[in-house]
Every structure is written in structure tokens, then in C-alpha cells.
Amino acid sequence: MSKAKTLYDKLWDDHVVRTEKDGTALLYIDRHLVHEVTSPQAFEGLRIAGRKPWRASSIVAVPDHNVPTTDRSAGITDPVAKLQVETLDNNCKEFGLTEFDMSDVRQGIVHVIGPEQGATLPGMTVVCGDSHTSTHGAFGALAFGIGTSEVEHVLATQCLMQNKSMNMLVSVDGEVHSGVTAKDIVLAIIGQLGTAGGTGYAIEFGGDAIRALSIEGRMTVCNMAIEAGARAGMVAVDQTTIDYVKGRPYSPTGDVFEKAEAHWSTLHSDDGAQFDKVIHLNAADIKPQVTWGTSPEMVVDIDSVVPNPDDISDKVKADGMRKALAYMGLEAGTPINEITVDKVFIGSCTNSRIEDLRDAAQVAQGNKVSDNIKLAMVVPGSGLVKKQAEEEGLDKIFIDAGFEWREPGCSMCLAMNADRLEAGERCASTSNRNFEGRQGQGGRTHLVSPAMAAAAAINGRFTDIK
Amino acid sequence: MQKFTQHTGIVAPLDRPNVDTDAIIPKQFLKSIKRSGFGPNAFDDWRYLDEGGPDIDNAGRKLNPDFILNQSPYDQATILLARENFGCGSSREHAVWALDDFGFRAVIAPSFADIFYNNSFKNGLLPIALGADVVDDMFDRVMGKQGLELTIDLATQTVSCDGEEISGFEIDAFRKHCMLNGLDDIALTLQYADEIKTYEDNRKKTAPWLF
Ligand code: SF4
After folding, report:
1. Partner residue facing B189 (CB), from A37, A149, A159
2. ipTM value of the model?
3. pTM of the entire predicted model
4. Is the CB of A445 under 6 A from ligand 1?
5. Which residues are within 8 A (CB) of A326 and not within 5 positions of it... i.e. 6 or more apart?
6. Which of A169, A266, A360, A373 is the most buried if burial means most Cβ atoms within 10 Å?
7. Domain range list for chain B
8. What does the pLDDT look like over B161-179, one tens digit per residue?
9. Of A26, A30, A65, which is closest to B192 when you measure between CB atoms?
10. CATH classification code of B6-182
11. pLDDT tier at B55, thresholds 50, 70, 90
12. Does A416 touch chain B (CB under 8 A)?
């Protein structure tokens, strides 16, 4: 009898082309997603070496980080950003690659459009020069972020030299309370695991609470696996996965779909598979989460207070907390629901899919953005999400409440375009990183779910949506 | 790729955990389509008192005197000593390019984020993960002597100080080989082009939906 395997073992074994003596493997890559920021130097390298993409059909490219989220008819005003986006357009033309350019309704954040197009399928290896590629693991795929040298390596060889990670299972058992979303689940996981807790591991998320999530929710969870240090996060394939994939533009049809489906339904960890580490969370204990510091692990329940570094014995950790409090302009002991915010950002590859917008709209409906809020913006993850939201009337709900309704892109998740925080401004954000300066130099980011962000906009401060 | 065999240089202590890639090179510099020139903007938010940008001349900017890399002799440092989870955050290889361009040849920390760790090897920047207690001891040494130098020997996998070995370190045999010889790993992989093609042909039969 063959050995019981984890989902990660299966995905790995399926893609090994060859293995070196020390265990380093040459891994075949099925899908390569490309965006404007991490690819120009890779294409340049390819050109200098006189090489061509190994398999152009494996590539889907899209500009997202640098695109404006306001009226696009005038193009990009920042000349440096403009050159970068044009460089992507030109590289795609030169090498014959599929690109959804800025004028295409399918354009959006790379991690939103891959799944939306069915370009991400179960059982694939998916890479992108972006750490949040872990998102695609929600489909039972092995998906991870790579650097620019590796982008060039995949372009040239369709493979990567990789060392296998260890296996970790994070099981969220039982049912969550209403008002607790995928974002709260993953923030709670990171709070428990720490930002380096997953380093060296591929994490499989399992348990009833994960199974109960939609694909959108699973993507939110896998998206932030990297925030726990894990390069890849994944969820086993089930009917929810297959239903989502069926009928998408890049998805197979007819007999091939049936054949694929038969294979996909094997993509789960076998009974008795060995994990190097297993962590359990009780879903019923998870409350809506708010980060208070400058690392995603600095997170607490909405009904608690900003923690006190003096209570922590580890000196390095306590120092880190003090630096974070100073940067965030917060006092230990302050109740989270007394913290007022200046801006609200609903968007990013973590939370900009239709379900996220529905969640936020539900809270916003019939309410008004509080007077102390300088800007509340909703940035859909793709042109197609935007279109669907408009068909459902969500844009009206947001606009009536006083939110701005924008064009798709990364936007204020990392503030490479004009959307940003000014120094000292405090933001309730549905993105994934609260690092210093992430949303603008001196800006202060609190990570929350879409519903919590909408509630912060309406009340002007963090509020328990329960 | 730049070779790494042996290196001796000044160690700069950066005493904080979770130094993320946004801190190492802020996003506004990622708009560049080049691979070089990021050194003057390494740790930009910490290094300068005013805000920088890709089209702002760094010569006219106000340096933050409290930041370690602005202080002599650490402005000449070639080895960076840091705390756990160094390089966490985004996949931007610009972080490695910035450290390299600043002049760093190695980073020592208790742990590194995976993608940063990988990216380092592609650029001849050696990331050395050592036990937290060894790193603590190094911080003590560096704090105790301004401009302390360490010697890193990749072949023997050792870090030493004044001729005395302080610690050994782990590294995968394959990565070590590539780094010692400055090998271009795309060329290496292309040696196996036939194997890749065979794999691909097989997969076209068994999993046609992937093509
Ligand atoms: S939305 Fe944010 S985290 Fe996601 S790809 Fe864009 S910049 Fe990166």
C-alpha cells in the first residue's frame, strides 16, 4: 500500500521533473501570472540572454499595482508608473503573451482575475512575482510567490528549483458565530501562529469552519498564509471548488472537464497523512479581529484593549511592541472600539471579491459615512467584480452612504498609485499588511474584515458588528 | 551571479524583529524597471527625515542621524545583523538589490522569510540563519566594539571574529555550490531541457486541461 500523503505532498510529487542529491527539486510550473512591478527586469534578462518564454500559453499578465483607480481615460499621469505599465504591455506584445490591459474589463488584481478566469485550476502549480500568490491555494493548487530572478527562471524554463517545505495543518474546528468572516479567521490564526510561525511550512487549512467557507472566503484565508510566514497555503478540493471552477473561460469543458474533475476529487490529504505540525483553533472562540500594530500578528479581538508591552517578558518582542505603539500613536490599555479612524479602504487581493463587497454593502446600506472620515473608498478587485456589483446595485449603496466607488487595482493596499494615507492618518483597511508606511509614509493601518471596515466608516471608529 | 567565497567586513546591528521588505525598500522605488541603483534608498523611511521618491535626488535630503546605517563606521558595513523573520512581506527582489547595492554581502539573523531567503541567493547576498542565542551573543559583541568585523567563509560554513570561530551555519549543498561558483541557474536548468520536455509531453496526455 502506498504511503498516506498530504495534499501538499500530492501536489509536489505531481510536479517534480527531477531531484538533486540534496533534495532540491526541479518543479514544473503550470500557470505563471505576471504583473508590471516584478516582471520588467525578468523580461530584460530574458532578452539579454537571447531566450524566449518556454510556454507562452502558461502566462496571464495584468497591470494592477500601479494603475489609477479614478477615471482612466487620461491614462496614468505619473511618468515612472506609466513607463512600467507600458513596459508590461510591450513585453507581452513582443513575446506573444495574453494580457488584460488597463482598458480590458477583465483587468484587475492579479490574484482576483486568475481564479475569476479559471486560469487557476485545482492541482496546478501557480506562481507569480508576488507574495500573495498563496491566494490560489484555495483551489487545492500549489501556489506561491517568487522573486524577479525566479520569474525569469520560470519564463525561460517553465520550472523552478525548489526545496520542499514541511507540512502544517491548521484546523479551524466547529462553526463561527455570525459576523465572523474568513478575514477574522485568518487574522486569528496569524495571531496565534505569529508572523514567522509558518516559515518553512506549506499550510493546509482544514476543519469544519474552513470547509464551510465559500471559495472567496478560502482565498482570503490562503491569501494571508504568507503573513504567517508560509509561502503556500491551501485548502482541499471539494464540491464548492468544482462548482466555482466550472464554466469559467480557462476551465476545461466536456469530457476533459469530467476527466479533470475525477483527478481534482483526489486532491485532499489522505486519512492518516503525517503533518510536521498541527494547530487547532476553536471557531466559536473567534471574534471580529482588529490589528493594533505594525505586523499582522499584532492583532486582538474587537472587544479587547491595546496590549501592554510591560506584560511581555521577551525583551525583543516587548521592544517591537513599543516601537509599534509609538508608530501607531496608540496607548496601551485603550479599548479598540474607542479608536477613531480617518480613512477606510475596502479592497485588495484579500477582500475585494463580490462576496466581500456584499458584506460591506450590507453594513453600509441605509447609513452614512461618519463626519470624521476624510475618505472611505471601495475598490473592486477586477472589472468583472465591479460590473457584477453594479448589477446588484452595490455601487449605489456605497455611493449613497458616502463611499467612493473606484476602478479596480491594488490601490491603497500599497499606495503605489495616488491612493494613499498622509503621515499620521489612521485607516481601517481590508488589505493584508499593516507594516510601517505600507499605505503611505507615516500612515497607520488597522487590518479588518470588509464588514468591520464598513462599520468603522459609518461609526467613525472601530465597532463590533455583532 | 556574483560569487561568494569568503568575506570580511564591518557588521551593522539592526536591532528589531520582522524587518519587512517595505522597510528595506519602500514601494515608490518599485516603479523602476531597472535592477540597479536602489542602494541610496535602502531603508529609505528610516534613513532619511524627509520623504523620497524615484525622481528625487538623494543628495539634497536630510539624513536621520539616529539611524544606524547613517553612523560611521556602519555606513561602510557589509554585513547586516538583524533579528528574527528578516525580509518578511512582499516578494520584491528590489529588497535584495537594495541591500546589495548598499554594499551588503551577507545578512545574519535568527530566521528569514522564505521568499527573501531565496531571492538573496539569486544575487550573491548570503543569508545566514543562526540560533537566537548566537545572534544575541553577536549583538553583544557588536555593541561592545564599534566597527567589529566578522569573517564569513562559505566553503567551511563558518563565521569568525579575530581568527576565532564563533559559529558554523547550515546551507543547502546545491545553493552553496551555485553561490561558490557564481552559477547562472537558468543555464543550469536548461541542461535538463529534455527532461522538462518529457515531463511536459506526459502531462499533456494525463492532464490535458493544463495546456
Ligand atoms: S492588492 Fe495589495 S497585496 Fe494584493 S497584489 Fe496588490 S499590492 Fe499586493
Report:
1. A159
2. 0.93
3. 0.95
4. no
5. none
6. A360
7. 6-182
8. 999 999 999 999 999 999 9
9. A26
10. 3.20.19.10
11. confident
12. yes
